Amino acid sequence: MDLLWDTPNDIALRTANKIKRIRKRKKITQEVLAARSNVSYASLKRFERTGEISFVSLIKICMELGVEDEIKDLFTRPVYNSIEEVIRDARETS
Hints:
The protein has six helices and no strands. By secondary structure, it is mostly helical.
């Protein structure tokens, strides 16, 4: 796994596998998770197999599994490419 060369599909599938492991650890079937999260069984099944799902459906699944903070924390750590970006961001937030 060379993260430098990851494709969007690689990242999506890894995310799906993480969600699947959480679901299985909690001993929840796909059918039960689909019903509880209000995501269709077909969508959940496809997600676990391919990594493809709508963002809203992913949030619903995460909420049902109790890992919604993982989604809430997306993009909370700034990534800077230069000192100029750090300075500009500091000025804009003050």
